[in-house]
Amino acid sequence: MPQLFVLSLGLATAVYTDVRSRRIPNWLTGAIAVGGFGMAFGGGTVSPLQALLGLMAGLLLMLPGHVIGATGAGEVKLMAAVGAVVGPDAALRAFLYSAVAGGVFALAIAARRGVLSATLQDTGRLVTAPAMARQTIESSSRANRFAYGPAIAVGTLISVMVTL
Questions:
Q1: From the CB of residue 163, how many other CB atoms can be counted at a distance below 10 Å?
Q2: 0.90 exceeded by the pTM?
Q3: 107, 119 Cβ separation under 8 angstroms
Q4: DSSP 8-state symbol, 71
Q5: Which backbone phi and psi does 122 adopt, to 5 degrees?
Q6: C-alpha closest to that of 111 among 158, 146, 68, 69
Q7: The dihedral formed by the CA atoms of 101, 99, 137 and 7, expressed in degrees to the nearest 10
Q8: Tell me: the pLDDT tens digits for 100-144?
Q9: Is 158 exposed, middle or buried (0-12, 13-18, 19+ CB in 10 A)?
Q10: What is the rounded distance in angstroms from the CA atom of residue 41 to the CA atom of residue 147?
Q11: 155: buried, middle or exposed (CB in 10 Å: 19+, 13-18, 0-12)?
Q12: pLDDT tens digits, residue range 65-109?
């Protein structure tokens, strides 16, 4: 299945670069999106229109997190590229699975860093006082940030495997 190959190769590269440099390069997200459109125009599992709608869905789903400072632009573009490969419905599923994976990763990383209690308290504050979200997320006093590319990769691949 070419779709799974493109996703696996692209996401593995994204995880490697994100963990190593905390960046997901434009050439990579562009290549994944181009691969998605190439498969769509070549008679793949999604049509060209679905590839476009998937790209837009991935972009729009991740954009709010970027606006409040919770994710970087690379993660937004990565989810958009995933959408171009899988289409809009699967992009939504990939986003939801990625959110769950991100939550699990966040808890594991917070526990490893010894800040689990503070992280849970901050999460409670985000829910009860969303206006303070950006300040809490960007707090430089604690190590509360981590590479989100792995969460997108795990969530996307699980969502694809579940629907096979």
A1: 11
A2: no
A3: yes
A4: S
A5: -65, -40
A6: 146
A7: 80
A8: 999 899 888 888 888 888 777 777 776 776 666 666 656 644 456
A9: middle
A10: 32
A11: buried
A12: 898 888 899 999 999 999 999 999 999 999 999 999 998 998 888
* Cα 65 to Cα 56, 61, 110, distances in angstroms: 15, 8, 19
164 burial via Cβ count (<10 Å: 0-12, 13-18, 19+)? exposed
> Token pair 């050439």 is at which residue?
27
Task: Record the tokens describing residue 104, joined without a space.
Answer: 């699990």
Say if residues 2 and 44 touch (Cβ distance below 8 Å): yes
- Is residue 152 within 8 Å of 78, Cβ to Cβ? yes
Q: How many CA atoms lie within 13 A of 92 on its CB side?
A: 4
User: For residues 74 and 20, what is the distance between their CA atoms, to the nearest angstrom?
Assistant: 14
Of the candidates 133, 157, 164, the residue with the CA atom closest to the CA atom of residue 78: 157
Helix axes 88-113, 116-128, angle to 10 degrees: 130
Q: Look-up: residue for tokens 């300040």?
A: 135
Q: Give phi and psi for 92, each to the nearest 5.
A: -65, -45
Biggest distance spanned by C-alpha atoms of the chain: 51
